[in-house]
Write a structure and sequence with these properties.
heterodimer; A: 285 residues; mainly alpha; MetI-like fold; two-stranded antiparallel ribbon; 74% helix; 1% strand; flat; B: 324 residues; alpha+beta; Rossmann fold; 2 domains; 6-stranded mixed sheet; elongated; ABC_SmlMolc_Importer (chain B); Fe3+/spermidine/putrescine ABC transporter ATP-binding protein (chain B); ABC_transporter-like_CS (chain B); nucleotide-binding (chain B); ATP-binding (chain B)
Chain lengths: 285, 324
């Protein structure tokens, strides 16, 4: 290739971002991969090349259980954020006619994001607790006699918090894709005799797929990498891969934590790789 | 001529809040004719078309097809089909599936609907590209597909919303011949909205000129061009001079104006060579600039230059009085 002035300028323009990514993304990942092959005892870390961490990880039934729990959280959260996110985005994009109203309602959706994740999570606790607002209300209505135990510190509360925290990550990309759908297509579908539901299934959903896919990637990576939500909302009674890693770190078992992190990273990448085979998101980016 | 199978607009009105887009228009479209709705932007022609298609609600009045008021029916139940300005092809479906879309909505099975779609693609000469996606087609090809998709519903009236405006001039002329041929072959009514008078004249059996939410004039293309009823029509159709004689407005075709020894005195202000013809613009007292179109032979046989005094003449019979 001939090196022209333009190519040099091009490389220079790309350089700052490349440096940032190399320094703050690629280098740490390489470090984690290297550390994952080290050995550790209770009080020391030994640089070596050993498969000990991986052997332990793949040999332990706990790993499989925790990965299964992580997938369960990810799947249920995904399904619910998708259902809610699609509905909200659809309503905003196709039922709100005035643009001012659209922007106002969209901003309304983002207001919860002005507070931190932890505060939003913790605020569920007095609501869902044994003597919380939810239980007291249900008892006073006579719906139940005993407080519901599964409202807090359960899979229910964990998934509820996840859905609450991450639905917006579904709404935004789906709304964005929907807004780009040519309104004439909806009319053309009607002109061709499609009912509202048929238009949804045959026109809107296929054209919204890239947005759904981007939202899916956001939600999956967030949920699969999370540890704090699971810890708070389950009262430390549930585990996912993130908690496995955070426990190892708390015990200063960095090599073991690194190995788990590498396995988690690969798992998430494989899942995303599979998803991307189904939908081409390139034109959305 | 009235038959049982015509499309009729009765006091059709469209209001958007306080603005009236279409003001109580009445018109009967003869079956099997090529009709052009012509007018400047904002004249109400698109609103009229969209009301007929069912994509815009009717504020008042009725749309009757075959004697039945269709104004409350959903678009697909009206016996009309619409071809959209930007074609509105479904980007995620192949050409064949785009054409078969309405059949799929009706629940026709795959083999039958694909066979029917191929039949229509054959008609518009697009069968060989049936597996392509719309983005892989040129503008003209997309338009053919849109046409096939509209025709697959077997409409009695095909509504075309500025169908040629997205094409380059060369393709536009070719597609307009194509449209005319299809209309003749199918024998259904084509209702074509356009703001180009040349397009309307080239295509239409009947031209309906709209302005300010009402129909200014309707009739055969030749009649509308030769005998414009109002000043607006004369100006909009082009090729006419509007002259004031005895305080009344008259239209005279530019090619009927001669430069002669007698007639209205005027000063030549501009000369424009147009290839086959020459347009001489002359300014007479108390008149707007008058254009005389003459063959280049006639023009070059006597030497005329800007600033010279000439006399404008025409046969009395070609002068056409305009309604105020």
């Amino acid at each position: 290739m001939k090196v022209t002035r333009e190519t040099v300028t091009g490389w220079l323009q790309a350089a700052p971002l490349t440096v940032v990514l190399l320094g703050f993304l690629v280098a740490p990942i390489i470090t984690i991969v290297i550390v994952s092959f080290w050995q550790a005892t209770e009080f020391s870390i030994i640089p070596a090349f050993s498969l000990e961490n991986y052997e332990f990880l793949f040999g332990s039934p706990v790993t499989y259980k925790v990965f299964a729990a992580t997938f369960k959280y990810a799947f249920l959260t995904w399904a619910m954020t998708l259902a809610i996110g699609f509905t909200v985005a659809y309503y905003l994009a196709f039922h709100i006619r005035s643009q001012t109203m659209q922007i106002a309602l969209f901003l309304l959706c983002t207001i919860p994001f002005w507070t931190s994740n932890i505060i939003r999570m913790i605020s569920w606790i007095p609501f869902l607790g044994r003597n919380g607002i939810a239980n007291q209300t249900l008892i006073s209505w006579g719906v139940i006699d005993q407080p519901l135990e599964w409202l807090l510190y359960s899979d229910f509360s964990v998934i509820l918090a996840f859905v609450h925290l991450y639905t917006l990550f579904m709404v935004v990309p789906i709304f964005n894709t929907m807004m780009r759908i040519d309104r004439n297509l909806i009319e053309a579908a009607r002109d061709n005799g499609a009912s509202g539901f048929q238009t949804l299934v045959h026109v809107i959903i296929p054209l919204t797929k890239p947005g759904i896919m981007i939202g899916t990637i956001f939600v999956l990576t967030l949920v699969m990498g999370d540890f704090i939500t699971v810890r708070f909302m389950s009262g430390s009674q549930r585990a996912n891969v993130g908690r496995l890693i955070s426990n190892d770190i708390a015990l200063l078992q960095y090599p073991s934590a690194a190995a788990t992190a590498v396995v988690l990273l690969c798992t998430v990448l494989i899942v995303i790789g599979i998803l991307l085979r189904f939908v081409n998101i390139r034109k959305e980016l | 001529m009235r038959t049982a199978h015509d499309l009729e607009l009765v006091n059709l009105t469209k209001r958007y809040g306080d603005t009236v887009a279409v003001d109580a228009i009445n018109h009967v479209f003869a079956p099997g004719s090529y009709v052009c709705l012509l007018g400047p932007s904002g004249c109400g022609k698109s609103s009229t078309l969209r009301m007929i298609a069912g994509h815009e609600s009717v504020s008042e009045g009725a749309i009757r097809l075959n004697g039945v008021d269709i104004s409350a029916l959903p678009p697909a139940k009206r016996g009309t089909a619409m071809m959209f300005q930007n074609y509105a092809l479904f980007p995620h479906l192949s050409v064949k599936d785009n054409v078969a879309f309405s059949l799929r909505m009706k629940g026709v099975d795959k083999t039958a609907r694909h066979a029917k779609a191929m039949e229509l693609l054959e008609l518009v000469d697009m069968a060989h590209l049936s597996e392509r996606l719309p983005t892989q087609l040129s503008g003209g090809q997309q338009q053919r597909v849109a046409l096939a998709r509209a025709l697959v519903t077997e409409p009695e009236v095909l509504l075309l919303d500025e169908p040629l405006s997205a094409l380059d001039p060369f393709l536009r002329v070719r597609m307009r011949a194509e449209l005319k041929r299809l209309q003749r072959e199918l024998g259904i009514t084509f209702l074509h909205v356009t703001h180009g008078q040349d397009e309307a004249l080239a295509l239409a059996d009947e031209v309906v000129v709209m302005n300010n939410a009402v129909i200014e004039q309707a009739g055969p293309a030749r009649e509308v061009f030769n005998t414009p009823r109002t000043e607006f029509v004369a100006r909009f159709m082009g090729g006419h001079n509007v002259v004031t004689l005895d305080g009344k407005l008259h239209a005279i075709r530019s090619d009927a104006v001669r430069l002669g020894a007698e007639g209205m005195p005027a000063t030549v202000s501009a000369i424009e060579y147009q290839g086959d013809r020459v347009a001489v613009t002359a300014q007479a007292e108390g008149q707007e600039p008058i254009i005389a179109l003459m063959s280049d032979e006639a023009f070059y046989s006597n030497d005329i230059n800007p600033g010279e005094q000439v006399r404008l003449a025409w046969d009395e019979g070609r002068l056409h009085r305009l309604r105020a």
